[in-house]
Amino acid sequence: MPPVALAVLAHPDDAEFLCAGTLIRLARECGYAVHVATLTAGDCGSAEHAPTEIAALRRAEGAAAAAAIGATYHCLEELDLRVIYGERPLEKVVRLINAVAATVVITHAPDDYHLDHEQTSTIARAATFAAPIPNFLHGRHDHPPVGAIPHLYYCDPLEGKDIYGRPVAPDFRIDITGVLDDKAAMLGCHASQRAWLRKHHGVDNLVESMRDWSRSRSLSPGRAAEGFRQHLGHSYPQSNLLVELLG
Ligand SMILES: [Zn+2]
Asked: What tens digit of pLDDT does each residue of 35-60 get?
């Protein structure tokens, strides 16, 4: 069985901004099976479509973007702006970690612009700790618990800053120059978000914004990168697997 990387993010286009380049490299260069999960289907991401309509569109967009790199998309069916750390979403993420046997989990920064991102980060942190514990879902397991806590990584917050506007520096950066076009193609699958992000976020060209952002994360002119911090709290894996594999 190949090793498994699982991105646990809030919304259907978050991976395509924050960590898709690293996921592509893990799949292509290291033989990882890649899974992308979002807590919501993005039901608030439209001023034209009703929640059920835009959610259906965005589930399909997320699945198409993941399929473009040979990954699998999972929607955990929570609701936009109502992602709240609690028993239900925690169990969903634990079940997914165990179902795919994740060894690496990538999630949002604990300090990000959107509370859905911060709550997703908390849920993923709790779920990585809970997934190997047999008693957590005692008698209710769909799949055996993973054998160990997965490596846990936090993406950069959006725009690399916290809610006070202070820069949040990554601990390390993964070069994604060679896969930036593939990352852009994934983001291009999220056609429904072009009009919405222009209206609500003031982002005029989604794909160009992502390219600029990725280039800004590299310390080398003309190259592109994604920044990460690793969860190194007690009992979590201490080796930096992403740097060992892709650094
Ligand atoms: Zn998001």
From this structure: 999 999 999 999 899 999 999 999 99
Strands (E), the chain: 4-9, 33-40, 72-78, 104-107, 151-155, 172-175, 225-230
- Could you tell me the two tokens for 51? 């929640």
Q: Which residues pair with 125 in a beta bridge?
A: none
CA of 229 to the centre of ligand 1 (A): 18
Question: pTM score, two decimals?
Answer: 0.96
> What pLDDT score does 200 carry?
77
Question: Cα separations (Å) of 58 from 13, 49, 121, 201?
Answer: 9, 11, 21, 17
Q: How far is the CA of 117 from the centre of ligand 1 (A)?
A: 6
Q: In angstroms, what is the span from residue 140 Cα to ligand 1's centroid?
A: 31
Tokens of 166: 């202070």
136, with CB counted inside 10 A (0-12, 13-18, 19+), is middle
Please report, for residues 5, 14, 137, 218, the alpha-carbon distance to residue 183 in angstroms, rounded to integers and kept in the order given. Answer: 17, 12, 36, 15
Rounded to 10 degrees, the C-alpha dihedral 189/196/204/9 comes to: -60
Q: Ligand 1 mean position to 101 CA, how many Å?
A: 25
